[in-house]
Amino acid sequence: MINRALEQSILRSLNYFPIVGILGPRQVGKTTLARKLMNELSKPAVYYDLELIEDFQTISQNTTWVLENNIDKTIVIDEVQRLLPLFPQLRALVDRKREVARFILLGSASPDFLQKSSESLAGRIAYHELSPILRSEAESAFIPQVTHWHRGGFPDALLAPDNDYWYQWQQNFIKTYVEQDLSQLGINATIPVINNFLRMISHLHGSLLNYATISNSLGMANPTVKRYIEILEQAYLVRRLEPWFVNVSKRIVKSPKIYIRDSGNLHFLTNVRHYEDLIMHPIAGASWEGYVIEQIIPLLDPAIRPYFYRTSNGAEMDLVLVDGVTPVVSIEIKLSLAPALKRGSTESVADLKTMNNYVVTPNGGNAAVRPQWIHCNIHELIGHLKTLKMIAEPA
């Protein structure tokens, strides 16, 4: 089993909050993590999976009995978004007996989970988002970077015996999302249209998001395209990275950039079956950029916000980490092993006034390439961000 960095943060929340919610896409490892947490709690725990008919009926038909007869245990409820009316009852029980670690709620691909739980359980619940396995986690399990980058971080995909099994897993994963989850979340298009939509987003990976371009290409209305992308974001499939507005005297690009969050999903959607195909594919540079971004953002302290920066004059920075209203770190991401900086990068740093600037390549080296610029790899970058206290250390 690959140890997850989020585990210690969740345990810390369980030492204070009566309810902890673990969010993330299906198959990301929420159930595995929850079962491990159950063994580390100071009191007994019981587990219910609402995708199982017998568990769903037990909870839905005998809610009061189940909850009150397990009052001295931690109750773990998986796929809790399938029974949202449960939340007011959880609130009542917590208010009647407020103590730590009463409930662990696991949910996937459901904006209703966040909305309903926030309304009913405000002040009683702490949320944690479980991402696919990160490079720092895969590294501790001796999984090569090239394997992790190509296959992505979903556990069963990453650990597949060979690339044929990996491809089959991805095929089944996307099929399930397209045919079940996305339609339930409000994407009402036909299956071929949804598949085309996902593949078009994959080809825009790392680019500025232009809703009109997608609308015209697929024959959809602009509002429909925006709503579908919002749903994909809520389902943890895509990320919109917002631009940082720092200097009103400059013409700043104000459109977000869009990324497929998991590199394995991206490579399946662009039909990249092997790593050897990836490094020769036109998507390689953008894929590496998105991959690095997704290894950093889940680790950031909640006070640190990620952005990109671009002006109409060509100044550009792939990732800018902002503390409050102050840009602190600029990160240029390059697939090339040569850490040479372009004028757009140096101009961006001059605009942003960041003192900590990094060029991230696959091999790195932790070498200064010019004043206030360090050439590093992902592992080395995480070390620098920990030193700057931009990554929260486990308690």
From TrEMBL:
InterPro entries: AAA+_ATPase, AAA_14, DUF4143, P-loop_NTPase. Residues 16-132 form the AAA+ ATPase domain. Gene3D superfamilies: P-loop containing nucleotide triphosphate hydrolases. It comes from the Bacteria. This is AAA+ ATPase domain-containing protein.
